[in-house]
Amino acid sequence: MGTLIPDKRGMKLMSNEPKGIGGWLVLVQIGLFLTIFTLILSVIHFFFTTLGGEVWDILTSPDSNVYDPLWKPTLIFELAGNVVFLLFAAFLVVLMYRKKASFPRWMILFYAANTLFHIVDYVLLTNIPLLAEFGEDPDVQSIGRSMVLLLVWIPYFIRSRRVRNTFIN
Length: 169
Prior knowledge:
- It is a single chain.
- The chain has about 170 residues and is mainly alpha-helical.
- It is about 70% helix and about 5% strand.
- A hairpin with a 2-residue loop joins strand 1 and strand 2 (about 10-15).
- It is elongated.
- Keywords: Membrane, Transmembrane, Transmembrane helix.
- It comes from Paenibacillus borealis.
């Protein structure tokens, strides 16, 4: 129901429903900041190790003995995906703090797109025979992690009263 509190014009009914960035939304907030931090590190690492060194030339040159035609599109896909998700996460932080009504829908899209990204990346990497020869398995754990996030947080954003009461602008 609610609680009556004094107001300038008399009494005002305040809702007892959960509201604001609290409860489980704190974990979402922490997750977004960790995502931004890890993606920044990942993009910087990619630039220095893959693009900045000889690795790019070795992997993408047809004259190289480790060449595979999928290296270039896979590496570009990973870099572009990480940059897009970095910007997407920053956009979500802005929406969250402005308590925009569109935030839950964007978060659902973020979790779904992240899972799809990991699946496509896995498929690309498994089609590079050289990785299998060296015993390098593509990261199946990232698909599992993104699926767990998807299965936990999407229902939360759809059903939570706190989400419904917080993101109203």
